[in-house]
Task: inverse folding
């Protein structure tokens, strides 16, 4: 099970840190993806961390602003979001895929946390 937290309302230019806590799985064996879905739009990938390579790939729209982090002791991953823009508004989901370096057809999904960027 994956549970996201940390969403909320933030002004443009502000920061938020989202958390994704896992139970029943050990995340360091999984590819981790952060995804988001803006109102009225489809889901898009924000970043993917390879479960074997450890490589992090960011969507162009968030490069230089968003950063992935993890705490294996807490079995939790994070999404640090800086310089937020109104177009970053949406529901953010974390997901995991066992022993993969890609983020397609994920095994586990959280229920999401809402991020609203607005003045």
Result:
């Amino acid at each position: 099970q994956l549970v996201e937290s940390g969403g909320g309302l933030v002004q443009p230019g502000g920061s938020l840190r989202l958390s994704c806590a896992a139970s029943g799985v050990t995340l360091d064996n999984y590819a981790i993806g952060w995804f988001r879905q803006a109102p009225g739009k489809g889901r898009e990938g924000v970043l993917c961390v390879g479960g074997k390579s450890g490589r992090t790939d960011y969507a162009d729209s968030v490069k230089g602003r968003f950063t992935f982090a993890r705490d294996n002791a807490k079995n939790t991953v994070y999404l640090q979001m800086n310089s937020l823009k109104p177009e970053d508004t949406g529901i953010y989901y974390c997901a995991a895929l066992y022993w993969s370096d890609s983020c397609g057809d994920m095994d586990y999904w959280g229920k999401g946390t809402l991020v609203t960027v607005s003045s």
About this structure: The chain has a mean pLDDT of 96.
